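We store chain and fold; thus.
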Amino acid sequence: MNTDTISKKYCNSLTSYSRYYTRVVNIGNIPLGGENPIRIQSMTTTDTMNTNATVEQSIRIIEAGSDYVRITAPSLNEAKNLENIKKELRKRGFETPLVADIHFTPNAAELAARIVEKVRVNPGNYADKKKFDFIEYSNDTYESELERIRQKFSPLVKICKEYGTAMRIGTNHGSLSDRIMSRFGDTPLGMVESAMEFVRICEDLDYHQIVLSMKASNPKVMVEAYRLLISKMEEENMNYPLHLGVTEAGDGEDGRIKSAAGIGTLLEDGIGDTVRVSLTEDPEFEIPVAINLVNRYSVLRKAHKEIPPVIENLNPLDPFDFKRRETLEVDKIGGHNVPVVIISADEKIFKDHHGLKDLGYLYSETLDKWNIGDIAADFIYLRNKNIDYKLPGTLKKIFDHNYWKTLNENEDSFPLFNTDNYLKNELRSGRINFLEISIDDLNEQLLTEIKNDSKCVLILSSNNEHAMAEMRRVFIELINREIKCPVIIKKTFTKEIKIDNELLMLYSATDIGGLLLDGLGDGIWIDSEVTDLKTVNSVSFGILQATRTRISRTEYISCPSCGRTLFDLQITTAMIRKRTDHLKGIKIAIMGCIVNGPGEMADADYGYVGSGPGKITLYKGRDVMKKSINTDIAVDELIDLIKENNDWIEPNK
């Protein structure tokens, strides 16, 4: 399939919020898809053979608000024990549908399908073994491979059909088969085709209780894959419900931001019927994050202020192929520069040098020097008040225009205009003129003026309930009019908005991250009255990191624990992070077992993978470098491997 030949349409509308309608799939007593609510789910981390522990954790997951509970069944023994787990849960009064997670073992899947309400299979390893070999296939040999898969997969489909069991066909970016990789490459298109091969077999057997997923640890890949999947389903007259998730998102703030950027971007366009947030934390902590993401799409969203529609053939955005919007370079904003970060000042900043600590700038009084951190803001908005100490050279000031023009020395400060004083052609900077606008400000006079102003940088904001879509509509207008001024995406949280730090990061990562994932935006400005500057600064850089638009710290691709995990993921991740979090730009995958090992870690630079009880295998990219290392020395061995490849730098003391 050539993506150039397919429609760019992947949702009901780019401007009017509407759920993408999918067929209903019955999963026990909780149906999925159609007009049903967006369902929430998580996965146990216990040993499936430990019935009591799995039951107890399942109950905690259910009581946290999960609609489904997924349990790993890596072999026939675990699949058999699902019956005991289910019986005990039902005995205790819990009717929540159970999902068996299957990877390499068709016989376990066929047994589990007779016991639980749903099975999940990964087409990349259900019928294939991955050796990272490139194979040239003729059409005939490729068709023979598809027939081999049909023979191996059909028994499961027939059992599911007989027992009324649903199935999730879940593609993961990092575990595409050698066959798919050889023909389609390590691409979203390869992910889609991997699933569609299995779906076509299901349809040939008149089985339709199917849910699909396209997971990746890179939100950009994940979003493109889901969009492409919908387009492909439309082409083949399918509308199966979608399970959303960013796999191996990690833990803490980073895991939440990465999940929100990927999942939230799709939810904004009405895509998604069930959500799982994959955190390297106890599974019950995943549920509130998923609920907070899903709860935004309720009555308020449906009643949002109208946004001018986009005519499909005038939409310049390619939803299946990332391309950054072309802009002018205005004093290191836009062009090929990484997106900038703007922070609004608080009272601490006006007091003394130490107020900038939360923005990544640490002042040494004895040396009279600044130490600039990896996540140091680029601009500080001071409104109508100056500070009486000299800023570090990399941090510039922004003032409201009326105050800025009164300054005698404004070499390192810049004005922020509103549309009125901008159009009056009042005094402007010869370097940068920031202009704050919303969609309501757009008119022919303003658009003409900014098109002809090579020093203009737009600050784009929205108070629409459907803010991401409204701001995207502005970008589409700018592109179609060939207006190339850089744009800073602004998100404002006033005291009237009752949110905490977690909601701020989830909402910001969704609204701003969704635009960045489409190549839109040259900077980020989270203006918050409800959270401290340290949080705002960290979240800002976290969104840029999650969207791969500005790398400022080490990235950890860490799978959530499950019953297959061969070591304590949370403790190990924390230990590796403590030793390596100064390695800016390096991606380290921490995987609990071979299932989430060399494949799932996809584009990581280094991998730390459980290969047996108490044993670790280390990877450089996808190549095995050291096997069967004892866990007590494995972190030291990982650091030695990084040093051997000249990627190590000594941390600052």
Notes: The chain is about 35% helix and 20% strand. The CA atoms of residues 492 and 527 lie 5 Å apart. The first strand starts at residue 39 and ends at 43.
